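RECORD CONTENTS
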Amino acid sequence: MDHDTAQAQADEVRRAYLAASRPALPRTTCTLSALCAGAGVAFVAWGEPGWQHLMFVAAAVLLFAAAHLLPTAVRRRRGLHGYRGWTRTENTTFLLVAVSLVISGFTGGRELAWIFTGLGVVSAVAWYAMLRGVLVAGGRPRT
């Protein structure tokens, strides 16, 4: 077997593994989930100190939960239960980032609200790209 044939077969195996761990989701689900994630990041730092700020943080946590549960529900309808492989790693990474953003936004106050709004836009784009399979932790097969 020559090098090109072996490389093509290895790429095919990698593509099959990545497709099994994160199957393609509908664009509407990815878009809605990305909007929830971005809005969650943006809401973390808004509100006056006190109850209003606490309500924004609670709304942000609910939006983060919705961003995770929407793709999970679509996967369950397709018969996929739980996350395996690179998808578990990606979800864990995004959870840790979300927790750190909630902590930073809660302690940062209203001065950082516009920065967190910009971070929300970046987060929404990154979440959408991850759900669509553009940002794959295992890497794309090289052609």
Observations:
- The helical segments are 3-21, 27-43, 51-77, 86-108, 113-132.
